[in-house]
Design a protein that fits this description.
The structure is a homotetramer.
Chain A (H helix, E strand, L loop, with lengths): L2 H23 L18 H15 L1 H4 L9 H4 L24 H21 L5 H31 L23 E4 L2 E5 L15 E5 L2 E4 L5 H9 L11 H10 L7 E4 L2 E6 L2 E4 L11 H10 L7 H9 L5 E2 L18 E2 L2 E7 L25 E4 L16 E3 L8 E2 L3 E3 L1
Parallel strand pairs in A: 8-9, 10-13
Antiparallel strand pairs in A: 1-4, 2-3, 4-14, 5-6, 6-7, 10-11, 11-12
Helix pairs in contact in A: 1-5, 1-6, 2-5, 2-6
Chain lengths: 415, 415, 415, 415
């Protein structure tokens, strides 16, 4: 591919990713842009600005005489990069009515103009470096596309009106397949990013791992199966729970997954399409690591390890219920099983450094490495993930008590 | 006045008060309607809805076959009336993006239509009762007009952009008058609402009080005077402070009034006109009871008692820097002194029941009486109070650590 | 009385008060000296040391070349006097195993020797000043005698073993008298310390107050009467409660007075004699101001005002169920009514400065004045108060949510 | 070994372990038995009772008609076994003055009599099962011997008197060795308990692991080396820290290891021998995982992985500065390096289940397995660990913010 084609390709991709972010916000009322329902979520308008700040801070000044759009935006829209200045306090993002949504769209326009001009004008010798940075920035923005959907869902869930983000989303059928099992022989395998395509630093280096004989369920645990756990007293039996999990569910009064609501004895679930009857065939979603682990214990199984799931994903095509399916909710498994997409699967692996891991140089080293404590790895992508953004080696990570990601529960077993 | 004139008069007043509320919101960006910067403030859109709910809940169903606008609005927009259902949690008001601002304006239109129809149609025998309720509802809405200004100011103060609510507000001059003193002989006096005009239940019954010889400062303490207290180490000298105040300022790191900011050694103050240089001639405002008391201690004086200030106000015309002056900030005292308006003066009197006090019957009994613990009385109205809403017997009340009201500091002394 | 007799008298009283403090600790196991069950209580060993520190800090160095017992005791045993150094953090007093109880008794011996030597040796011209200070120090120690009993009771209540502080305390009978009412004509009266005998600064100056016609119950509300309030749903009816009280009882799950326990449907009460069946004839004790106020509201009455109760006490002999009765629990009222002793009665008066109040000079000014915010006045002394320490003008004060004092509930009513 | 010899041997070991626990408490003042300085520590008297409860609950009733010593001790002295009843709240253990220390020693006597009678009387066919349980109970008590020393140290550290637990402990010399490195070829190795000797369930099953080429420091990082990190601004440079660690040290104001104190520019360290000058040759101890990790980052190294350290330990004799050395503080490394003892080394491995892990059956399954989340593995034993209790496969575990264990910092590096 010629250099010019590469430039045109990247510019097209830049435009596409940036436009997708705004399309995701199109169904929102002006009021919705402002909400931060818990410290972990961010107002949609903050996401719109932050992803632009990423280009403004990590790309534009490196290649041009860039003049920042506003002297305070670097403070307001820095997420967590301590080495580039003190970020505005995260839990207070929802308290900032100014800049307004309109002003933030103006900011986006400005950054877009500057970025596209830069992509046109940069010299060939600096092209590879620019390309790397831009690809990283676009992957970053895609992460925030998923965060936008996660956060919008949580933000809307606060209102007793149970408003729908979209009213044109399809309903899933209620037919469930039997849970099947995929066996895997033990041995030495390689995992991690193989190079060639984009990957985050935390997926590297590719390295050997020792895997034992095991088998993995070929689909997620369903709402119906999880309901049996609840009805069997799962939330009241301490023996099933990790100590931290038992303390947590008692302290917070958790008796069901995040978005389940009971009314007049009937279970309902809040979704991006509003509230609706619980579909027993759909995968159970929005549960914590502790709940996933307790269910596995109750079922006499365990959660998969990171490397087991990566191996299984490597053997399947990169397709499934991603955001492009425009369902925005997990779907019942088909007879082919359920691997990529639908939900991020909690693994039993804590998020740590691969042997020989080196973070990116400079401030971008703060992107992934400094979170390698107290979090668990999740694999496979979800119905809110851009397909292009996902791959077998992708390592998502959340704290074990966090439930607002599109996360689910897959069983594993030693052989 | 004929009955028909009374009706027309009340309808006109209804229209005027309701319109004023909306005019106060006119300068807001859509984003501003959503903010709740601290649990004590409410989003402007919530105020817009709550004052309508007051008519919907306490007026309309008593006189007509009223159909509520939405089955959940009674839950969402009930502030604290436990006896009419469980209110939506106060600290979470800012998390409700739905109903939207647009929907809330629709709600206001609906309530207005019903109210005006009722005012036209109600029978003469029920008119007095309706009139009482509507006047209460309008006074309630005027309280929320002041709360709107207080809350908007606090909400905007969070952004480091220091946005102005209005950019057409006048600047005050910097000339300060000498503080004079008004003497008052002790004796038995009457305070409380005398009847004839509207008053809240907590202003009744009118009763005798014993007052000692004393004198009151004829104006508020100024920024310049308060700055001398700060520069003298006032915030670092425990002996000047009530124990709870000392604990508080150390825990929260308070070293100045709420809206003062220091930059490069210069003091500035955030106002509804944005940030500007501290004007030494203006009354110091937005300080807690503890700060007011510590200043008085430092100055060798004390704060006035509720009855002392009421007596003084009774002897003056009900005029001053109220919201109609359209300054929205306290102004330096004139040579006539400073009594009504500008700022609510903290008194040394805790907010309690007058001898023989009876709350209103029914749910409206929750309006004032249940707050008679742990709060202090403030008197005189402020630059954010509608003049029509104020009077000498008015008892405002806040917790001693609250600073976001337009409150100020007047000195007193025994003779 | 000759100067020498005065000296001998004060030395005798010094010995008696100091000995009484230690007698109160005699029934304790070594383990009990160490406990601080809530931040408000202190370990008994801390009380033993603190009251000695009071003499060490506020008496001895003023009259002699006093050498402090230990360089750090001034830090460890300062309660809240900011002007004489930074006190050790109050909530951590129970974490100090050193100095040991034995070492603290050594400290007491040292201070006693120095004090008695000083009382012998001080010159006649400094005698009056010394006498004042010593009397204050002994009154201070008597306050801590009551605190010792309050704190020991709370500390022991934590153990499910419900240990008795003493097993030789008498049981009360179960006969209750009818509640009678004492009427009082309104008018101008004087309250406050009249001089002549010791009083704290907060009881001064004596001043006139305006009292309205009213009547006071001639005994406290009983357990039996309070049980009727509970059984009538008193703790579930928001309309009876101050807003702060309603929030509090729901947040803390309060459904009964502090030391009431229910087992198999039977009500029991923890006392300094251990746990025993609830005696319906005894006064209800250990309830918060909010509970007292809610009961009064339910009963259609109100709580007395400070001045009303002082007037009533002034008209009665200073006798009753004080600590010298050695019951350590309130007793059912006799046919003569119940005025001094048994329990401190919550009043409807917030604790503030009397007109013209001046705190003591110097650091002792921190004794009472700085607490004049957010607390309520209680009157009359309790079964844990030394009789000699009590008087009609005495103003005790606690926060409205505090229940561990021996406090009770007397009703009042306007005429 | 004959069955009778086995019985005599186990009885001797029972007596020895039980006596050792009490010897560790011999230097304590009565006051010291009661302290719980943070929720993680327990009062020494609670440890004394809890380890007896372990025999009372998990051994005696299984083999005899055992009558519990007191009906409530099962509640008071259950640590965290949800499946045998609700434990008394952990943070409140220090609030229980009753039962007294004396009563708890009586409890120990009772349990000892019953245990020794049982060990004599049990039938041969039930002997193996009893033996297993008793050995587990003795290992459990040895864990609490170390906890006693950890907790006593922390409890005493609260007092500004800096009391010594023992004043007869030796001082270390100040000569430090150069840090050497031990290389290890990568490959497949086996780790975990090999059977034959006692091990906890979490050390099983023995299994293969893949290890990469690496090297380990042959001694711990010293105080002197750590001081260089501090003086280089290590606590102020966010780039060195995990995000959770950075948030933590800023929230808690951590600027040095737990027991370091600075006075007049000189660094001192609190030890079980009281406060003394910081010895630069001693290993730095009582730091969190985050501090260990930040230091390693600053030094351009990393922390060892669990399996790397186990491999190294397997190759060394089980000897070192254990509790039997009676130093109770880590010592400078000798020229032979420093492997077992001195300090538990933080590893980079989160504490999780080994492949195929099965917890013990029944309630004892709560012993280790339920803590497999959010904690990190430490290896090697410390100066407070009984030598007999330690082994290469031992997995200790603490939360990454916990510092009161005798824990230290060893560096590792990839080759």
């Amino acid at each position: 591919m010629s250099d010019e084609q590469e430039r045109q390709g990247l510019m097209a991709r830049y435009r596409q990713v940036r436009a997708t972010t705004e399309q995701l916000c199109a169904p929102l009322a002006p009021d919705d842009f402002q909400i931060q329902s818990i410290p972990q979520t961010s107002p949609p308008k903050w996401h719109l600005a932050h992803v632009s700040w990423f280009f403004e801070n990590f790309v534009l000044p490196l290649f041009s005489n860039y003049r920042p759009y506003h002297p305070l935006f670097g403070h307001l829209f820095n997420s967590y990069y301590q080495s580039v200045g003190e970020p505005f306090p995260r839990p207070d993002r929802g308290l900032l009515s100014r800049p307004t949504v309109g002003e933030i769209y103006g900011y986006r326009r400005y950054v877009d103009e500057q970025m596209l001009a830069l992509l046109t004008a940069v010299s060939n010798d600096r092209w590879p470096e620019l390309q790397n940075r831009v690809v990283l920035g676009l992957n970053h923005e895609q992460q925030h596309q998923e965060l936008l959907l996660m956060d919008i869902k949580h933000n809307l869930s606060i209102s007793p009106l149970f408003p729908a983000y979209r009213d044109d989303l399809p309903q899933n059928g209620i037919a469930a397949t039997e849970m099947g099992w995929q066996e895997q022989h033990g041995g030495l395998y390689e995992i991690g990013a193989a190079g060639g395509e984009f990957a985050f630093d935390n997926e590297t280096p590719r390295h050997r791992v020792l895997v034992n004989d095991h088998r993995l369920a070929d689909r997620f645990v369903t709402n119906g199966e999880y309901l049996a756990f609840i009805e069997d007293g799962g939330y009241r039996d301490a023996r099933l729970w990790l100590a931290d999990g038992w303390a947590l569910i008692n302290q917070r009064g958790w008796q069901q997954p995040l978005y389940w609501r009971q009314r007049d004895g009937e279970w309902r679930e809040f979704t991006l399409a509003g509230i609706r009857s619980l579909n027993p065939a759909e995968p159970v979603c929005h549960l914590s690591y502790y709940e996933a682990d307790a269910y596995a214990c109750w079922a006499g199984k365990r959660l998969p390890r990171e490397e087991e799931l990566e191996l299984a994903l490597t053997q399947r095509p990169l397709s499934g219920n991603f955001v492009e399916s425009d369902r925005l909710h997990p779907a019942p498994a088909s007879s082919d099983g359920q691997w990529f997409g639908d939900l991020w699967a909690w693994t039993a692996s804590s998020y740590g450094a691969y042997p020989g891991f080196r973070p990116l140089a400079g401030s971008l080293g703060e992107y992934n490495g400094k979170f390698m404590a107290n979090q668990m790895v999740l694999k496979g992508g979800s119905c809110a993930t851009p397909q292009q953004h996902c791959r077998a080696s992708y390592r998502n990570f959340f704290y074990p008590d966090e439930r607002w990601a599109f996360c689910g529960l897959r069983l594993a077993e030693d052989l």
